[in-house]
Amino acid sequence: MSDSALHDMRHRDVVEPVADNVVRPFWSVMIPTYNCGAYLRQTLASVLSQDQGPDRMQIEVVDDASDSDEPRAIVEELGGGRVTFTRQPTNVGHIANFHTCLQRARGEVVHLLHGDDLVGPGYYEALERGFRTSPQIGAAFCRARLIDETGEELSTTEQEEDRAGPLPNHLIRLAREQRIMTPSIAVRRDAYVELGGFDRRLVCSEDWEMWVRLAARYAFWYEPRPLASYRMHVHSNTGRHIRSGADMAYTRRAMDIFAHYLPPADRRSTVRRARQTYAKAALAMARRVAGSGDVPAALAQAWQAIRFRPSPGVARAGLGAVLRSLLRAGET
Predict the structure, then answer these.
(1) Exposed/middle/buried for residue 107 (C-beta within 10 Å: 0-12, 13-18, 19+)
(2) Element containing residue 32 per DSSP (H, E)
(3) How distant, in Å, are the alpha carbons of 79, 285, 293, 326 from that of 331?
(4) In this predicted model, what pLDDT tens digit does every residue of 89-142 receive, in sequence order?
(5) pLDDT in tens, 296-326
(6) How far apart are CA 273 and CA 176, in angstroms?
């Protein structure tokens, strides 16, 4: 194992194998929650409508000591004894809560489904088909709908291929840009056992680093139908970090971490393209927040764009966004 790989392992919790005497379903649907009771009923309903029974599907909510709602009551009301509820004794943060989900999962395949996201009809059937095709498939994912607080569709992730099947050139494609929303992907539990849990150095983009890490070791199955929904709102993990620019700073850190997973011949060009992509994304966010007159957010996002791609063009565009936010603030 390389020095960089050994260093990385220090920042990931070990996922222990399931004991030999434990009966294992195919699916473990693990639902991490924290103060998302307003959406949890919808999340649970979307899973229970596809329930394959306890012999084939473990369904469990793992709550990170919510203090603004009562997820246990929601689980008992909607789950009717079918859904297991586990609560952290204190708030441990979302990375540690994810790890509890992975460790408690008994199934062959783990689906981490945030307590404010949804799955559409046919999700589990479609992705199971991918895992059944080959033991080389380590993860399967589908397109995702992006929805707002009310469930209104905002957009849909880009279509990678026309037909379901193994994703060609998947490592390079997934390293160029974060193309997988967490509710849309399921992963063999043995892959987590081999590679470890989510990286504790990342508060945002921990999912992107994980998918690239998995892609460097396993084949991925792709389903072109949008069978999952990712909810965008200001209280989401990413939404909380936009104003400071921390979302983009962690994105850049994720690139630094996963760069050595890539083949040496492709490493430089792949990372360069990723940095260009997120420079554009940061500029787009700077312009968006500038429209509301949020000067600190516009400045933070413009600075992150320059950090991704230090060039006169990016600097001019970032300055323009900041000036626009200043003018907008002056009007209010």
Answers:
(1) buried
(2) strand 27-33
(3) 51, 21, 9, 9
(4) 999 999 999 999 999 999 999 999 999 999 999 999 999 999 999 999 999 999
(5) 999 999 999 999 999 999 999 989 988 888 8
(6) 6
